[in-house]
Input
Amino acid sequence: MFADLFAYFYQFADVFAFLVLSAAGLAVIFGMMGIINMAHGEFIMCGAYVTTFAYHDGLPLPLAQGCGAIAAGAIGVALEATLIRPLYSRPLDSLLVTWGLGLIATQGTLIVLGSSVAGIGTPSGGFRVGGYGFSTYRMILFAASVCVLAFIYLLFMRTRFGVHARATMQNAGMAQALGVRRNRIYALTFGVGAALAGLCGALYAPTMTLIPTMGSTFIVEAFVTVVVGGASVLLGTAPAAVALALIRTGLNGVYGQVFGQIGLLLAVVLIIRVLPQGFSGWLAKRAS
Amino acid sequence: MLKRLNGPQTLGNGRGFWVCACLALLAALIYPVFADPYDVGNFAYFLIWVFMALGLCLMWGYGGMLSFGQTFFFGIGGYAYGVLSVDLGNAHGMALGNFVMAVVLAGLTAVILGYLMIYGRINGVFFGIVTLSVTLALAFFLGQTAGPEWAIGSARLNGFNGMQGMAPLSLPWFGGDIDLEETPLYYFVLVLLVCTYLALRILVNARFGNVLVAVREDSQRTELLGYDVRLYQLGGFVLGSILAAVSGVFYTAWGQFITPSSIGLPAAAMPIIWVAFAGRSDLTATLVGTFVLLLVFQTLTIYSEQAALILMGLILVLTVMFAPQGCFVGLGRIAQWRPVRRHTMRARSPEAG
Output
Protein backbone atom coordinates (compact mmCIF):
# COMPACT_ATOMS: atom_id res chain seq x y z
CA MET A 1 0.00 0.00 0.00
CA PHE A 2 2.67 2.47 1.04
CA ALA A 3 4.85 1.36 -1.81
CA ASP A 4 2.03 2.04 -4.29
CA LEU A 5 1.40 5.46 -2.83
CA PHE A 6 5.09 6.22 -3.01
CA ALA A 7 5.18 5.08 -6.62
CA TYR A 8 2.43 7.59 -7.45
CA PHE A 9 4.24 10.29 -5.54
CA TYR A 10 7.44 9.47 -7.42
CA GLN A 11 5.68 9.85 -10.76
CA PHE A 12 4.16 13.11 -9.64
CA ALA A 13 7.47 14.40 -8.30
CA ASP A 14 9.17 13.58 -11.58
CA VAL A 15 6.66 15.58 -13.63
CA PHE A 16 6.50 18.37 -11.06
CA ALA A 17 10.28 18.79 -11.10
CA PHE A 18 10.30 18.89 -14.89
CA LEU A 19 7.59 21.54 -15.01
CA VAL A 20 9.08 23.75 -12.29
CA LEU A 21 12.66 23.54 -13.49
CA SER A 22 11.80 24.16 -17.13
CA ALA A 23 9.42 27.02 -16.34
CA ALA A 24 11.25 28.83 -13.53
CA GLY A 25 13.53 30.94 -15.72
CA LEU A 26 10.77 31.82 -18.15
CA ALA A 27 8.42 32.68 -15.28
CA VAL A 28 10.93 34.97 -13.55
CA ILE A 29 11.58 36.95 -16.73
CA PHE A 30 7.91 37.12 -17.66
CA GLY A 31 6.67 37.88 -14.16
CA MET A 32 9.21 40.60 -13.48
CA MET A 33 9.57 42.15 -16.91
CA GLY A 34 6.52 41.13 -18.93
CA ILE A 35 8.72 39.61 -21.61
CA ILE A 36 8.46 36.08 -22.91
CA ASN A 37 11.95 34.86 -23.62
CA MET A 38 11.55 32.74 -26.73
CA ALA A 39 15.21 31.78 -26.57
CA HIS A 40 14.43 30.00 -23.29
CA GLY A 41 15.01 26.60 -24.83
CA GLU A 42 18.39 27.74 -26.14
CA PHE A 43 19.44 28.91 -22.67
CA ILE A 44 18.51 25.43 -21.42
CA MET A 45 20.57 23.93 -24.23
CA CYS A 46 23.47 26.23 -23.34
CA GLY A 47 23.34 25.13 -19.69
CA ALA A 48 23.34 21.48 -20.68
CA TYR A 49 26.23 21.84 -23.14
CA VAL A 50 28.43 23.83 -20.76
CA THR A 51 27.75 21.30 -18.01
CA THR A 52 28.72 18.43 -20.27
CA PHE A 53 31.93 20.09 -21.45
CA ALA A 54 32.92 21.06 -17.91
CA TYR A 55 32.23 17.51 -16.75
CA HIS A 56 34.33 16.02 -19.53
CA ASP A 57 37.11 18.41 -18.57
CA GLY A 58 37.21 16.78 -15.15
CA LEU A 59 34.98 18.90 -12.95
CA PRO A 60 32.72 17.01 -10.55
CA LEU A 61 29.12 16.97 -11.71
CA PRO A 62 27.61 19.50 -9.25
CA LEU A 63 30.36 22.04 -10.03
CA ALA A 64 29.92 21.47 -13.73
CA GLN A 65 26.21 22.10 -13.33
CA GLY A 66 26.98 25.32 -11.52
CA CYS A 67 29.15 26.36 -14.47
CA GLY A 68 26.28 25.63 -16.84
CA ALA A 69 23.88 27.85 -14.92
CA ILE A 70 26.40 30.67 -14.56
CA ALA A 71 27.32 30.59 -18.25
CA ALA A 72 23.68 30.85 -19.27
CA GLY A 73 23.15 33.66 -16.77
CA ALA A 74 26.13 35.62 -18.07
CA ILE A 75 24.88 35.32 -21.64
CA GLY A 76 21.48 36.45 -20.43
CA VAL A 77 22.89 39.61 -18.85
CA ALA A 78 24.82 40.45 -22.00
CA LEU A 79 21.79 39.84 -24.18
CA GLU A 80 19.55 42.04 -22.06
CA ALA A 81 21.97 44.93 -22.20
CA THR A 82 22.40 44.80 -25.96
CA LEU A 83 19.20 43.59 -27.59
CA ILE A 84 16.33 43.41 -25.11
CA ARG A 85 16.71 46.81 -23.47
CA PRO A 86 15.66 48.92 -26.47
CA LEU A 87 12.46 46.90 -26.73
CA TYR A 88 10.85 47.26 -23.29
CA SER A 89 8.03 49.35 -24.67
CA ARG A 90 7.33 46.70 -27.34
CA PRO A 91 6.87 43.33 -25.62
CA LEU A 92 5.77 41.57 -28.81
CA ASP A 93 8.93 42.71 -30.55
CA SER A 94 11.12 41.37 -27.77
CA LEU A 95 9.33 38.06 -28.33
CA LEU A 96 10.37 38.16 -31.99
CA VAL A 97 13.95 39.18 -31.29
CA THR A 98 14.47 36.42 -28.76
CA TRP A 99 12.93 33.96 -31.20
CA GLY A 100 15.34 35.05 -33.91
CA LEU A 101 18.20 34.66 -31.46
CA GLY A 102 17.00 31.20 -30.53
CA LEU A 103 16.98 30.21 -34.18
CA ILE A 104 20.50 31.54 -34.65
CA ALA A 105 21.73 29.78 -31.50
CA THR A 106 20.27 26.40 -32.45
CA GLN A 107 21.56 26.44 -36.01
CA GLY A 108 24.89 27.95 -34.96
CA THR A 109 25.38 25.13 -32.44
CA LEU A 110 24.55 22.64 -35.17
CA ILE A 111 27.24 24.09 -37.42
CA VAL A 112 29.90 24.48 -34.74
CA LEU A 113 29.36 21.40 -32.59
CA GLY A 114 27.63 19.00 -34.92
CA SER A 115 24.37 17.19 -34.43
CA SER A 116 25.20 15.64 -31.08
CA VAL A 117 27.92 15.48 -28.43
CA ALA A 118 28.84 12.71 -26.02
CA GLY A 119 26.59 12.84 -22.96
CA ILE A 120 27.30 12.26 -19.31
CA GLY A 121 25.13 9.33 -18.36
CA THR A 122 22.65 9.44 -15.51
CA PRO A 123 24.32 9.13 -12.12
CA SER A 124 23.50 5.62 -11.05
CA GLY A 125 22.11 4.77 -7.70
CA GLY A 126 18.64 3.86 -6.73
CA PHE A 127 16.59 2.82 -3.79
CA ARG A 128 13.77 0.41 -3.23
CA VAL A 129 10.43 0.97 -1.61
CA GLY A 130 8.33 -2.15 -1.29
CA GLY A 131 8.72 -4.08 -4.51
CA TYR A 132 9.60 -1.11 -6.72
CA GLY A 133 12.97 0.40 -7.59
CA PHE A 134 13.43 4.14 -7.94
CA SER A 135 16.20 6.36 -9.29
CA THR A 136 17.91 8.58 -6.75
CA TYR A 137 18.74 11.23 -9.36
CA ARG A 138 15.04 11.80 -10.07
CA MET A 139 14.55 12.49 -6.37
CA ILE A 140 17.48 14.90 -6.46
CA LEU A 141 15.77 16.70 -9.35
CA PHE A 142 12.58 16.95 -7.28
CA ALA A 143 14.56 18.37 -4.36
CA ALA A 144 16.25 20.80 -6.75
CA SER A 145 12.89 22.01 -8.04
CA VAL A 146 11.69 22.69 -4.49
CA CYS A 147 14.98 24.49 -3.80
CA VAL A 148 14.53 26.62 -6.93
CA LEU A 149 11.07 27.69 -5.78
CA ALA A 150 12.45 28.49 -2.33
CA PHE A 151 15.34 30.40 -3.92
CA ILE A 152 12.97 32.49 -6.02
CA TYR A 153 10.86 33.24 -2.95
CA LEU A 154 13.84 34.24 -0.82
CA LEU A 155 15.49 36.23 -3.60
CA PHE A 156 12.45 38.32 -4.42
CA MET A 157 10.85 38.57 -0.98
CA ARG A 158 13.76 38.63 1.43
CA THR A 159 16.64 40.49 -0.20
CA ARG A 160 17.31 44.10 -1.06
CA PHE A 161 17.62 43.13 -4.71
CA GLY A 162 14.17 41.54 -4.53
CA VAL A 163 12.61 44.68 -3.06
CA HIS A 164 14.23 46.79 -5.79
CA ALA A 165 13.14 44.35 -8.48
CA ARG A 166 9.53 44.30 -7.31
CA ALA A 167 9.51 48.07 -6.99
CA THR A 168 10.83 48.40 -10.54
CA MET A 169 8.20 46.00 -11.77
CA GLN A 170 5.39 47.95 -10.14
CA ASN A 171 6.51 51.42 -11.14
CA ALA A 172 9.82 51.73 -12.92
CA GLY A 173 9.85 55.54 -12.99
CA MET A 174 9.14 55.90 -9.31
CA ALA A 175 11.69 53.26 -8.38
CA GLN A 176 14.27 55.09 -10.45
CA ALA A 177 13.43 58.36 -8.75
CA LEU A 178 14.06 56.69 -5.40
CA GLY A 179 17.53 55.66 -6.49
CA VAL A 180 17.01 52.17 -7.85
CA ARG A 181 19.23 51.51 -10.85
CA ARG A 182 16.60 50.33 -13.20
CA ASN A 183 18.82 49.04 -15.97
CA ARG A 184 20.92 47.06 -13.55
CA ILE A 185 17.80 45.50 -12.02
CA TYR A 186 16.49 44.53 -15.43
CA ALA A 187 19.82 43.06 -16.50
CA LEU A 188 20.16 41.08 -13.27
CA THR A 189 16.57 39.84 -13.40
CA PHE A 190 17.03 38.68 -16.96
CA GLY A 191 20.30 37.10 -15.90
CA VAL A 192 18.62 35.24 -13.03
CA GLY A 193 15.96 33.96 -15.40
CA ALA A 194 18.56 32.85 -17.93
CA ALA A 195 20.64 31.21 -15.19
CA LEU A 196 17.59 29.28 -13.97
CA ALA A 197 17.03 28.10 -17.55
CA GLY A 198 20.69 27.10 -17.68
CA LEU A 199 20.28 25.27 -14.39
CA CYS A 200 17.39 23.32 -15.84
CA GLY A 201 19.56 22.25 -18.75
CA ALA A 202 22.43 21.48 -16.39
CA LEU A 203 20.27 19.29 -14.16
CA TYR A 204 18.71 17.39 -17.04
CA ALA A 205 21.96 17.11 -19.04
CA PRO A 206 22.82 13.70 -17.54
CA THR A 207 19.39 12.29 -18.37
CA MET A 208 19.06 13.09 -22.05
CA THR A 209 20.80 13.10 -25.42
CA LEU A 210 22.51 16.38 -26.13
CA ILE A 211 21.31 17.77 -29.44
CA PRO A 212 21.08 21.42 -30.45
CA THR A 213 17.28 21.25 -30.57
CA MET A 214 16.97 19.78 -27.08
CA GLY A 215 15.49 23.03 -25.82
CA SER A 216 12.25 22.35 -27.64
CA THR A 217 11.71 19.33 -25.36
CA PHE A 218 11.28 21.77 -22.51
CA ILE A 219 9.59 24.80 -23.91
CA VAL A 220 6.07 23.44 -24.34
CA GLU A 221 5.98 22.50 -20.65
CA ALA A 222 7.60 25.80 -19.72
CA PHE A 223 5.09 27.79 -21.77
CA VAL A 224 2.03 26.04 -20.44
CA THR A 225 3.20 26.30 -16.85
CA VAL A 226 3.74 30.03 -17.24
CA VAL A 227 0.43 30.50 -19.06
CA VAL A 228 -1.48 28.63 -16.38
CA GLY A 229 0.50 30.26 -13.61
CA GLY A 230 -0.05 33.81 -14.80
CA ALA A 231 1.97 36.92 -14.22
CA SER A 232 3.18 36.30 -10.68
CA VAL A 233 6.02 33.84 -10.27
CA LEU A 234 5.52 33.36 -6.57
CA LEU A 235 1.76 32.86 -6.59
CA GLY A 236 1.48 31.28 -9.99
CA THR A 237 4.23 28.90 -10.99
CA ALA A 238 4.15 26.55 -7.99
CA PRO A 239 0.37 25.96 -7.93
CA ALA A 240 0.30 25.71 -11.72
CA ALA A 241 3.05 23.09 -11.61
CA VAL A 242 1.19 21.12 -8.93
CA ALA A 243 -2.07 21.17 -10.87
CA LEU A 244 -0.47 20.35 -14.23
CA ALA A 245 1.70 17.63 -12.71
CA LEU A 246 -1.40 15.98 -11.21
CA ILE A 247 -3.16 16.11 -14.59
CA ARG A 248 -0.12 14.85 -16.45
CA THR A 249 0.63 12.05 -13.99
CA GLY A 250 -2.96 10.85 -14.19
CA LEU A 251 -3.00 10.96 -18.01
CA ASN A 252 0.42 9.30 -18.29
CA GLY A 253 -0.72 6.50 -16.04
CA VAL A 254 -3.89 5.83 -17.99
CA TYR A 255 -3.02 6.66 -21.61
CA GLY A 256 0.79 6.82 -21.85
CA GLN A 257 3.31 9.60 -22.49
CA VAL A 258 2.07 10.88 -25.85
CA PHE A 259 -1.47 11.43 -24.71
CA GLY A 260 -0.09 12.71 -21.44
CA GLN A 261 1.39 15.66 -23.28
CA ILE A 262 -1.55 16.22 -25.59
CA GLY A 263 -4.04 15.88 -22.76
CA LEU A 264 -1.99 18.33 -20.74
CA LEU A 265 -2.19 20.83 -23.56
CA LEU A 266 -5.95 20.40 -23.95
CA ALA A 267 -6.33 20.87 -20.20
CA VAL A 268 -4.28 24.06 -20.41
CA VAL A 269 -6.37 25.48 -23.25
CA LEU A 270 -9.51 24.74 -21.23
CA ILE A 271 -8.01 26.26 -18.07
CA ILE A 272 -7.15 29.53 -19.81
CA ARG A 273 -10.71 29.70 -21.13
CA VAL A 274 -11.88 29.72 -17.49
CA LEU A 275 -8.95 31.54 -15.87
CA PRO A 276 -7.48 33.89 -18.50
CA GLN A 277 -5.19 35.55 -15.96
CA GLY A 278 -3.88 32.21 -14.76
CA PHE A 279 -3.81 30.98 -11.20
CA SER A 280 -2.04 34.03 -9.86
CA GLY A 281 -4.59 36.40 -11.41
CA TRP A 282 -7.38 34.32 -9.94
CA LEU A 283 -5.76 34.20 -6.50
CA ALA A 284 -5.10 37.93 -6.58
CA LYS A 285 -8.72 38.61 -7.49
CA ARG A 286 -9.96 36.42 -4.64
CA ALA A 287 -7.63 38.13 -2.20
CA SER A 288 -8.78 41.62 -3.06
CA MET B 1 -17.60 45.74 -54.50
CA LEU B 2 -14.64 46.21 -56.81
CA LYS B 3 -14.35 49.75 -55.50
CA ARG B 4 -13.12 48.19 -52.27
CA LEU B 5 -9.96 46.98 -54.01
CA ASN B 6 -8.57 50.38 -53.16
CA GLY B 7 -8.91 51.88 -49.77
CA PRO B 8 -7.20 53.14 -46.65
CA GLN B 9 -6.12 49.70 -45.43
CA THR B 10 -3.97 48.85 -48.43
CA LEU B 11 -0.96 50.46 -50.02
CA GLY B 12 -0.78 50.84 -53.77
CA ASN B 13 -4.12 52.35 -54.69
CA GLY B 14 -3.08 54.46 -57.66
CA ARG B 15 -3.24 53.71 -61.37
CA GLY B 16 0.53 53.26 -61.46
CA PHE B 17 0.35 50.46 -58.95
CA TRP B 18 -2.32 48.58 -60.85
CA VAL B 19 -0.44 48.92 -64.11
CA CYS B 20 2.65 47.47 -62.44
CA ALA B 21 0.57 44.71 -60.85
CA CYS B 22 -0.95 43.78 -64.22
CA LEU B 23 2.48 43.72 -65.83
CA ALA B 24 3.78 41.47 -63.04
CA LEU B 25 0.80 39.17 -63.48
CA LEU B 26 1.34 39.09 -67.23
CA ALA B 27 4.98 38.21 -66.72
CA ALA B 28 3.97 35.44 -64.32
CA LEU B 29 1.44 34.12 -66.84
CA ILE B 30 3.86 33.88 -69.76
CA TYR B 31 6.80 32.69 -67.63
CA PRO B 32 6.15 28.95 -68.26
CA VAL B 33 6.48 29.53 -72.00
CA PHE B 34 10.14 30.42 -71.58
CA ALA B 35 11.17 28.24 -68.64
CA ASP B 36 11.49 24.48 -68.47
CA PRO B 37 8.83 22.60 -66.47
CA TYR B 38 11.16 21.84 -63.56
CA ASP B 39 11.79 25.52 -62.91
CA VAL B 40 8.10 26.25 -63.26
CA GLY B 41 7.46 23.64 -60.58
CA ASN B 42 9.97 25.37 -58.31
CA PHE B 43 8.31 28.69 -58.97
CA ALA B 44 4.97 27.17 -58.00
CA TYR B 45 6.63 25.99 -54.78
CA PHE B 46 7.40 29.60 -53.82
CA LEU B 47 3.87 30.72 -54.55
CA ILE B 48 2.47 27.94 -52.36
CA TRP B 49 3.88 29.51 -49.19
CA VAL B 50 2.50 32.95 -49.93
CA PHE B 51 -1.05 31.94 -48.89
CA MET B 52 0.19 31.25 -45.40
CA ALA B 53 2.00 34.57 -45.26
CA LEU B 54 -1.10 36.44 -46.42
CA GLY B 55 -3.09 34.68 -43.70
CA LEU B 56 -0.59 35.72 -41.06
CA CYS B 57 -0.59 39.24 -42.46
CA LEU B 58 -4.36 39.36 -42.03
CA MET B 59 -4.40 38.20 -38.44
CA TRP B 60 -1.18 39.76 -37.22
CA GLY B 61 -0.83 42.88 -39.31
CA TYR B 62 -4.50 43.81 -39.53
CA GLY B 63 -5.92 42.05 -36.48
CA GLY B 64 -3.00 42.39 -34.08
CA MET B 65 -3.01 38.68 -33.22
CA LEU B 66 0.51 37.30 -33.37
CA SER B 67 -0.10 33.63 -34.08
CA PHE B 68 2.81 31.22 -34.12
CA GLY B 69 0.38 28.54 -35.22
CA GLN B 70 0.47 28.98 -38.99
CA THR B 71 2.37 25.72 -39.41
CA PHE B 72 -0.13 24.02 -37.09
CA PHE B 73 -2.91 24.66 -39.59
CA PHE B 74 -0.49 24.08 -42.45
CA GLY B 75 0.14 20.64 -40.98
CA ILE B 76 -3.52 19.87 -40.41
CA GLY B 77 -4.32 20.86 -43.99
CA GLY B 78 -1.38 18.96 -45.42
CA TYR B 79 -1.92 15.78 -43.42
CA ALA B 80 -5.68 15.86 -43.89
CA TYR B 81 -5.24 16.15 -47.64
CA GLY B 82 -2.71 13.33 -47.57
CA VAL B 83 -4.95 11.01 -45.59
CA LEU B 84 -8.03 11.84 -47.65
CA SER B 85 -6.31 11.41 -50.99
CA VAL B 86 -4.90 8.04 -49.97
CA ASP B 87 -8.21 6.83 -48.58
CA LEU B 88 -10.65 8.32 -51.03
CA GLY B 89 -8.51 8.60 -54.13
CA ASN B 90 -8.09 11.60 -56.34
CA ALA B 91 -9.98 10.58 -59.43
CA HIS B 92 -13.03 12.30 -60.95
CA GLY B 93 -12.73 15.59 -59.14
CA MET B 94 -12.32 13.91 -55.77
CA ALA B 95 -8.96 15.73 -55.48
CA LEU B 96 -10.73 19.06 -55.26
CA GLY B 97 -13.17 17.56 -52.78
CA ASN B 98 -10.24 16.42 -50.64
CA PHE B 99 -8.74 19.89 -50.96
CA VAL B 100 -11.92 21.49 -49.70
CA MET B 101 -12.45 18.95 -46.92
CA ALA B 102 -8.88 19.35 -45.66
CA VAL B 103 -9.23 23.13 -45.57
CA VAL B 104 -12.63 22.91 -43.85
CA LEU B 105 -11.19 20.57 -41.25
CA ALA B 106 -8.40 23.05 -40.51
CA GLY B 107 -10.99 25.82 -40.40
CA LEU B 108 -13.05 23.94 -37.81
CA THR B 109 -9.94 23.37 -35.71
CA ALA B 110 -9.23 27.07 -35.95
CA VAL B 111 -12.77 27.87 -34.80
CA ILE B 112 -12.37 25.69 -31.71
CA LEU B 113 -8.87 26.85 -30.82
CA GLY B 114 -9.69 30.45 -31.63
CA TYR B 115 -12.88 30.32 -29.58
CA LEU B 116 -11.04 29.01 -26.52
CA MET B 117 -8.28 31.60 -26.82
CA ILE B 118 -10.12 34.68 -28.02
CA TYR B 119 -13.23 34.22 -25.89
CA GLY B 120 -10.90 33.45 -22.99
CA ARG B 121 -9.43 36.91 -23.69
CA ILE B 122 -5.96 35.61 -24.31
CA ASN B 123 -3.97 38.31 -26.03
CA GLY B 124 -0.54 39.73 -26.65
CA VAL B 125 2.35 37.44 -25.86
CA PHE B 126 0.14 34.67 -24.49
CA PHE B 127 -1.62 34.32 -27.82
CA GLY B 128 1.75 33.62 -29.37
CA ILE B 129 2.93 31.07 -26.86
CA VAL B 130 -0.34 29.16 -26.69
CA THR B 131 -0.42 28.81 -30.47
CA LEU B 132 3.23 27.79 -30.48
CA SER B 133 2.63 25.18 -27.77
CA VAL B 134 -0.17 23.65 -29.80
CA THR B 135 2.02 23.64 -32.89
CA LEU B 136 4.96 21.96 -31.18
CA ALA B 137 2.66 19.40 -29.59
CA LEU B 138 1.23 18.48 -33.00
CA ALA B 139 4.72 18.09 -34.43
CA PHE B 140 5.72 15.98 -31.42
CA PHE B 141 2.59 13.84 -31.73
CA LEU B 142 3.03 13.23 -35.46
CA GLY B 143 6.68 12.39 -34.88
CA GLN B 144 5.54 9.56 -32.59
CA THR B 145 3.23 7.93 -35.08
CA ALA B 146 5.73 5.58 -36.68
CA GLY B 147 4.02 2.32 -35.78
CA PRO B 148 1.49 0.50 -37.96
CA GLU B 149 -1.25 1.24 -35.39
CA TRP B 150 -1.11 4.89 -36.46
CA ALA B 151 -3.13 4.73 -39.62
CA ILE B 152 -6.34 6.36 -40.73
CA GLY B 153 -8.01 3.97 -43.11
CA SER B 154 -5.17 2.74 -45.29
CA ALA B 155 -3.12 5.92 -44.82
CA ARG B 156 -0.11 5.35 -42.59
CA LEU B 157 1.13 8.47 -40.78
CA ASN B 158 4.70 7.10 -40.67
CA GLY B 159 6.01 9.16 -37.76
CA PHE B 160 9.02 11.31 -38.33
CA ASN B 161 9.52 10.16 -41.92
CA GLY B 162 6.14 11.55 -42.82
CA MET B 163 3.51 10.53 -45.31
CA GLN B 164 4.29 10.03 -48.93
CA GLY B 165 2.95 8.61 -52.13
CA MET B 166 -0.25 10.60 -52.38
CA ALA B 167 -1.57 11.38 -55.82
CA PRO B 168 -1.17 14.95 -57.09
CA LEU B 169 -4.12 17.31 -57.37
CA SER B 170 -6.17 16.75 -60.48
CA LEU B 171 -8.97 18.56 -62.24
CA PRO B 172 -11.88 16.65 -63.72
CA TRP B 173 -12.02 17.25 -67.47
CA PHE B 174 -13.75 15.79 -70.50
CA GLY B 175 -11.88 12.71 -71.57
CA GLY B 176 -9.83 12.18 -68.40
CA ASP B 177 -8.54 14.12 -65.41
CA ILE B 178 -5.79 16.68 -65.76
CA ASP B 179 -3.02 16.02 -63.24
CA LEU B 180 -1.85 19.24 -61.69
CA GLU B 181 1.91 18.97 -61.74
CA GLU B 182 4.56 21.48 -62.69
CA THR B 183 3.06 23.87 -65.29
CA PRO B 184 -0.65 23.09 -64.73
CA LEU B 185 -0.12 23.21 -60.96
CA TYR B 186 1.67 26.53 -61.37
CA TYR B 187 -1.28 28.05 -63.18
CA PHE B 188 -3.73 26.66 -60.67
CA VAL B 189 -1.76 28.09 -57.74
CA LEU B 190 -1.25 31.39 -59.51
CA VAL B 191 -4.93 31.86 -60.28
CA LEU B 192 -5.92 30.95 -56.73
CA LEU B 193 -3.27 33.29 -55.34
CA VAL B 194 -4.44 36.23 -57.43
CA CYS B 195 -8.05 35.58 -56.41
CA THR B 196 -7.03 35.31 -52.74
CA TYR B 197 -5.02 38.50 -52.90
CA LEU B 198 -7.82 40.49 -54.53
CA ALA B 199 -10.44 39.03 -52.17
CA LEU B 200 -8.32 39.93 -49.16
CA ARG B 201 -7.88 43.46 -50.47
CA ILE B 202 -11.64 43.82 -50.77
CA LEU B 203 -12.10 42.28 -47.34
CA VAL B 204 -9.68 44.54 -45.48
CA ASN B 205 -11.07 47.67 -47.11
CA ALA B 206 -14.62 46.61 -46.31
CA ARG B 207 -16.33 46.93 -42.96
CA PHE B 208 -14.70 43.74 -41.65
CA GLY B 209 -11.19 45.01 -42.26
CA ASN B 210 -11.88 48.42 -40.82
CA VAL B 211 -13.26 46.94 -37.61
CA LEU B 212 -10.35 44.48 -37.43
CA VAL B 213 -7.88 47.35 -37.67
CA ALA B 214 -9.85 49.25 -35.04
CA VAL B 215 -9.57 46.24 -32.72
CA ARG B 216 -5.84 46.16 -33.29
CA GLU B 217 -5.52 49.85 -32.48
CA ASP B 218 -7.76 49.89 -29.41
CA SER B 219 -9.93 46.90 -28.69
CA GLN B 220 -11.65 48.50 -25.70
CA ARG B 221 -12.73 51.54 -27.64
CA THR B 222 -14.00 49.38 -30.47
CA GLU B 223 -15.99 47.34 -28.00
CA LEU B 224 -17.48 50.49 -26.47
CA LEU B 225 -18.51 51.59 -29.95
CA GLY B 226 -20.73 48.53 -30.05
CA TYR B 227 -18.75 45.96 -31.99
CA ASP B 228 -18.35 42.40 -30.80
CA VAL B 229 -14.58 42.49 -30.80
CA ARG B 230 -14.17 38.79 -30.18
CA LEU B 231 -16.26 37.82 -33.18
CA TYR B 232 -14.14 39.93 -35.53
CA GLN B 233 -10.94 38.57 -34.03
CA LEU B 234 -12.20 35.03 -34.35
CA GLY B 235 -13.13 35.72 -37.97
CA GLY B 236 -9.65 37.03 -38.72
CA PHE B 237 -7.99 34.14 -36.96
CA VAL B 238 -10.04 31.49 -38.73
CA LEU B 239 -9.56 33.08 -42.13
CA GLY B 240 -5.81 33.40 -41.62
CA SER B 241 -5.58 29.81 -40.44
CA ILE B 242 -7.57 28.59 -43.42
CA LEU B 243 -5.06 30.24 -45.72
CA ALA B 244 -2.29 28.40 -43.87
CA ALA B 245 -4.17 25.16 -44.51
CA VAL B 246 -4.37 26.02 -48.23
CA SER B 247 -0.58 26.28 -48.21
CA GLY B 248 -0.41 22.92 -46.46
CA VAL B 249 -2.63 21.18 -48.99
CA PHE B 250 -0.67 22.62 -51.89
CA TYR B 251 2.60 21.64 -50.26
CA THR B 252 1.48 18.04 -49.86
CA ALA B 253 0.11 17.94 -53.39
CA TRP B 254 3.23 19.57 -54.83
CA GLY B 255 5.84 17.20 -53.43
CA GLN B 256 3.48 14.32 -52.61
CA PHE B 257 4.87 14.11 -49.11
CA ILE B 258 4.62 15.88 -45.78
CA THR B 259 6.63 15.39 -42.60
CA PRO B 260 6.27 16.63 -39.02
CA SER B 261 9.36 18.78 -39.49
CA SER B 262 7.36 21.14 -41.68
CA ILE B 263 5.21 21.83 -38.60
CA GLY B 264 7.67 22.11 -35.71
CA LEU B 265 10.64 24.40 -35.21
CA PRO B 266 12.26 26.00 -37.13
CA ALA B 267 9.48 25.75 -39.76
CA ALA B 268 7.04 27.50 -37.42
CA ALA B 269 9.29 30.56 -37.32
CA MET B 270 9.40 31.02 -41.07
CA PRO B 271 6.01 32.67 -41.71
CA ILE B 272 6.69 35.11 -38.88
CA ILE B 273 10.04 36.05 -40.41
CA TRP B 274 8.62 36.56 -43.90
CA VAL B 275 5.78 38.70 -42.70
CA ALA B 276 7.83 40.69 -40.17
CA PHE B 277 10.49 41.38 -42.77
CA ALA B 278 8.07 42.21 -45.56
CA GLY B 279 5.85 44.41 -43.44
CA ARG B 280 2.88 42.95 -41.66
CA SER B 281 0.57 45.90 -42.07
CA ASP B 282 0.06 45.54 -45.81
CA LEU B 283 -0.98 42.67 -48.05
CA THR B 284 1.02 43.71 -51.09
CA ALA B 285 4.20 44.17 -49.07
CA THR B 286 3.71 40.73 -47.54
CA LEU B 287 3.14 39.18 -50.94
CA VAL B 288 6.26 40.67 -52.51
CA GLY B 289 8.48 40.40 -49.42
CA THR B 290 7.60 36.78 -48.77
CA PHE B 291 8.37 35.88 -52.33
CA VAL B 292 11.75 37.62 -52.24
CA LEU B 293 12.72 36.00 -48.92
CA LEU B 294 11.70 32.57 -50.14
CA LEU B 295 13.83 33.03 -53.21
CA VAL B 296 16.85 34.05 -51.10
CA PHE B 297 16.27 31.24 -48.61
CA GLN B 298 15.91 28.59 -51.28
CA THR B 299 19.05 29.75 -53.06
CA LEU B 300 21.05 29.62 -49.83
CA THR B 301 19.61 26.30 -48.67
CA ILE B 302 21.33 24.61 -51.59
CA TYR B 303 24.67 25.52 -50.01
CA SER B 304 23.88 25.17 -46.32
CA GLU B 305 20.53 24.86 -44.63
CA GLN B 306 21.93 25.90 -41.26
CA ALA B 307 23.51 29.04 -42.69
CA ALA B 308 20.24 29.91 -44.41
CA LEU B 309 18.35 29.52 -41.14
CA ILE B 310 20.91 31.64 -39.30
CA LEU B 311 20.42 34.33 -41.92
CA MET B 312 16.67 34.10 -41.38
CA GLY B 313 17.16 34.55 -37.64
CA LEU B 314 19.43 37.53 -38.28
CA ILE B 315 16.88 39.05 -40.63
CA LEU B 316 14.22 38.74 -37.94
CA VAL B 317 16.42 40.33 -35.28
CA LEU B 318 17.60 43.16 -37.53
CA THR B 319 14.12 43.87 -38.88
CA VAL B 320 12.64 44.14 -35.41
CA MET B 321 15.49 46.28 -34.11
CA PHE B 322 15.82 48.69 -37.02
CA ALA B 323 12.68 48.51 -39.16
CA PRO B 324 9.86 47.33 -36.91
CA GLN B 325 7.24 48.06 -39.57
CA GLY B 326 9.00 45.87 -42.10
CA CYS B 327 11.19 46.68 -45.07
CA PHE B 328 8.73 46.48 -47.94
CA VAL B 329 6.07 48.54 -46.20
CA GLY B 330 8.73 51.20 -45.76
CA LEU B 331 9.50 51.08 -49.49
CA GLY B 332 5.79 51.22 -50.30
CA ARG B 333 5.29 54.25 -48.08
CA ILE B 334 8.19 56.03 -49.76
CA ALA B 335 6.74 55.27 -53.19
CA GLN B 336 3.36 56.61 -52.14
CA TRP B 337 4.65 59.58 -50.24
CA ARG B 338 6.06 61.67 -53.08
CA PRO B 339 2.97 62.52 -55.14
CA VAL B 340 1.00 63.39 -51.98
CA ARG B 341 3.66 65.88 -51.00
CA ARG B 342 3.70 67.51 -54.44
CA HIS B 343 -0.06 68.00 -54.25
CA THR B 344 0.03 69.64 -50.86
CA MET B 345 2.85 71.96 -51.91
CA ARG B 346 0.94 73.00 -54.98
CA ALA B 347 -2.16 73.66 -52.92
CA ARG B 348 -0.29 75.77 -50.44
CA SER B 349 1.80 77.82 -52.82
CA PRO B 350 -0.87 80.41 -53.77
CA GLU B 351 -1.54 81.13 -50.08
CA ALA B 352 2.15 81.53 -49.39
CA GLY B 353 2.50 83.79 -52.41
About this structure: Chain B has a mean pLDDT of 86.
